[in-house]
Design brief:
41 strands, four-stranded mixed beta sheet, disordered C terminus, mainly beta, signal, Immunoglobulin-like
Amino acid sequence: GALLVSERIDREELCGALSPCSLSFEIVVENPLELYSGAVEIQDINDNDPVFPSSQTRLEISESVAAGARFPLESAQDPDVGINSLQTYQLSANPHFALDVQTRVDGSKYAELVLEKELDREEQRELHLVLTALDGGSPPRSAHVQIHIDVVDANDNAPVFNQSTYKASVRENTPSGTLVARISAYDLDDGPNGDIIYSFSSHTPAKVRELFALDSATGELRVKGQLDYEETKLYEIYLQAKDKGAVPGVAHCKVLVEVVDVNDNAPEVTVTSVYSPVPEDAAPGTVVALLSVTDLDSHDNGLILVQVSDVNDNAPKSSQDSYDVYVLENNVPGIPILNVSATDPDLGLNALLSYTLLQGDPTVGHIFSINRENGTLYLLTSLDHEDQVEFSMVVQVQDGGSPPLATNVSVSVFVTDLNDNAPTVLYPHPNTTATYTDVVAPGSPAGHMVTKVVAVDADAGYNAWISYTLLQATDPSLFSVGLHSGEIFTARQLREDDAPQHTLVILLKDHGEPVLSSSATVSISVAEMIKEVLTDLTDVAPANDHRKHVTFYLILAVILVSAAFFITMLSVGIFKCYKWRQSKELFNSSRSTLYRTPGPFHHIDAVRGGLTPPNFYHQVYLTTDSRQSDLLCKKPFTSSPLGSRQSTMRNGEPGLYHQIVGTASRVPTPAE
């Protein structure tokens, strides 16, 4: 049962760059019959040096190339893998260039020269550098290449690719000549200096050049060889564009070609026969052969599939149970404001979702609309925060199964405020021809409030916060206005030489963005009495007002309402006095038999004042010459307060009341 090496093993010859490298085998054991699979992994040793394609390379670099320019170098190859493969590059010390080591997708390394200090042909016509490639073995193996750089005059403009990285995908069975990608570069120079030639970069592997062809004139990259997904899944191709100038300018780009797997490998069935021939009397269940099935394709192309039909057993599920959407007012109609997202793990029609806006509120259907296929919610009209602040609706997500399953999602749309309303002046009214004149007495001290500008703003929050400033005045030193109250005060004491008439222009501004403003004009007269102002106003011809009859009716209505209110209050007062006198006479009639308290007293009926419940009340009697009270507490009773009070005073039950009389000569007995 020992497994022996029959000949010298060379991992690079067996597996190349594939890692790990393993050899598979099968062992059949008889009696009892068993089959074992095994694999031998061939481990790599550092037995190969890195190798450059050539021992020296030459570069032509213009002295006009700016610092930061990059120049790819030929890559060294090391057939070892893992840590023994090529790990890094080193560059000999020099004042102009640095080395930048990059890693490809497959893990291989390549180096680029990076110009750190600009070249000067007059100072140095050529440079000699040494590039060293090192692997990761212990000790490391290395290889060297001489880099000869000629500093020459180049074109003013180098070619430029329209993108630095191109991506393409191609099926592994694509025939030769199929277009993979088209690269494009431009050069601002004229003539030969602007003609561009496309080619592979110097560090493009030879294997890539065998599989792909590049048209030097058009930049078309086409399939040249036979691609195999099982061998390589991604190709990283480095291309360059060079003009035809005496010192050609060069630009570089990268093309990533993804090889797409196709089902081009049939399953392989391996039959290991044990009994040959099989006896005719072999018992049922006797093993005749062992079978194993393999497929070199990947993913679904390498499975033996069993289809499971779908049943609509999953309702759509939204990522959120509810949505809160905030929309600025004065929006443009037709804009999307929300995308209701939902998923369904079913397949086919069972997972085909449709979105419907349920018409709970009839106004919602005129304002909002939802895309039935993708759940995008649109605003059909422009919203106004001052008209309505919030909208609520329900979106139903339903699949295409039979029967269909559905899920409801609640959506709340909040209309946020914009500063679209300027402050509105309520007093003095700006849209009237009538003259409003406020009066201040002569000699009024500083700080005396004369009048107040009243204004409102239909917006909300800071947009409705109004500030008042004095914009213009007959005498700016005489009056001031409260910044936030709009109250107009005297800034100093009025003097005899002050003008009798003053006109103030008040500027009202909100705190929105942008700021909106309006103004109010206030007329102030300095007069001792209102009559003086009215006398002055008689000289002004009244303006025609088509609404003067409305004012008359309003004044008449106010007078009638005031008269009705006065008559009502007078009637209530007379009724109260009548009731009070009636209760006082009743008390006086029973006072002589119950109390012996000198002097007059006052009677307060708490029940009639509505201070206690109707089935429980207190009576308090106060004498004119005493600060103490006579307190009568009665137990709850359902009869009227007046009848209960009379019954209590006549019966004189000891446990129902107490008397405290400040001026009495003795304490009454329970019988009294």
